[in-house]
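Students often ask why we bother encoding 3D structure as a string. The short answer is that it lets us treat folding as translation between two languages. Here is a chain of 540 residues written in the first language.
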Amino acid sequence: MNELSQPRRTSHLTLKVGLFAFMYAMLAGLAIQLIILPYVFPQLHAGNGLLVGRDWVGFHEQAVAQMQKMALGGWSEFRLRPDGDNAITGVASFFYFLFGPHPWTLLPLNATVFAIGGMALFRMLKFLELENNDAIIATLPYLVFPSALLQYGQIHKDVFCTTAVLVMLWSWVGLLRQERKLWQIGPLLASGALAQIVISIFRPYLLFPFLGLSVLLLLWYLGRTLWRAFQFHLAGNVPGFFRVIKFDLGSIVILTLLSAFLYLMSLSFVDIKMSPLPFASVHPKIAVPTIIWQSNESVRSADAVRIVSSKKFSDDEIYAELLSQNPLKTPAMIASLRLEVERIKAARMEAEMVKAIQECRPVVILREGAFFENLINRVFLKIAVARAGFTSSGGVTAASNIDKGIDFCRNEDLVRYIPRAIQIALFAPFPTSWTAVEKRNSSPIEIYISAVEMFYCYIAYFGLLYWLMSYRRWSVALVVPIAFAVGLTLLLGLTVANVGTLYRMRFPFVMIFVSIGMAGILQLAKIKPRWVQSLDSKID
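And here it is in the second language, the structure alphabet:
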């Protein structure tokens, strides 16, 4: 009976955490937009409750322009991505059309989404078998960090991406736990699928790391099952084998479904169309949303203009070109032409690579039949192109830039930069900049706040290290969130050259490190030195 009541108590506590997070986010968001920025720090106020010098100012202006079109043409003018990229602009215009062009109208939605993310993080910490009080304390940084205000208190897609990432990781951990129940699989799959849809709307490129993680986990469970089958085969205990691998087989099925859905989602993107009701003339602001799945084949990928197509180096095309120049087709001539094809192909490839290196632009040559080599090259190329996009945008002289002059011209450049990328991704802004005023876009207040947060993060990193070294068993509750957070943090360190942007985008992954690290510190604090233990035994 106690075992049955424990999940209920945890669920009730999770709801309380979510309700508290919602109320806190609502009140803090209203305070920052209506009081703190306009009256306490007017020098940081860009108007309408928005912080000066950030993307949300432009998102607000685009949403107002979209709202004005909708005011004239109705819901038919609604576009989820008015600029073709940022869905948050369409979301803001939706609320502006209903309630007026005020950023505070988005606060209920932002607070709700933020609270769901807090609940997912809390449940992941509970999967680590923490006591309720320890799990609540470890979740607090997600709520009270001043940088969290940028998640729900401004107009940006970060809060949706943060929550979607945390919900997906929570659902995956729940699905792969040894203690999972059959009735939990459906709700967890549905939660993960909904989070995937949210990610596909706001940051679709995050689906690919999740796809990579799901494939790696699937290979792990397949390998473990085969190894156990081999061991039981040697022992001659076939019935016992099926009893033992029942959980692994279920995990393989679940991971196959997750991987398949992620792959299908990567082939399409989600759009939303608003359809007015028949009595729209009476209630013009009432409409029904319709989800539209569209293929992304027509959408230019990040490396579409960079990849050198294999057709440029096709044997058949080069051979046809040589035949047109040499009308004689004797056997000796054909044999020599075949050799010439290989020489010309190699020369063209080398010339293209030399030109790319000289121009320092990302490029890759796709080779026929080299699937894994092409796959790796595509991944490296996408990272290089993404970094080039960040390094070529924004203020070149901004003091918050780090290594902005570094681009990845070759795959080796990227590999050599990995240690530096990890350093930047985890520890920037560095202590040397904690008291320095940025040249643009940052105030002393923002810098000092980030310094306090980073100091806390450094302490939490120590707790994380202790937790990883002392945790009695490395279960999926620890491995899955940490592995994904490490991978995505490294990816951000490789691509983002501006600390301000990095600081905002890495929020969900740093919260995983900080929360688990705080849990480690709490466990460390419970350890009694030997002299205290001996003193207690003498008193007893």
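Translate back mentally: DSSP finds 20 helices and two strands in the chain. Keep this in mind for the problem set.
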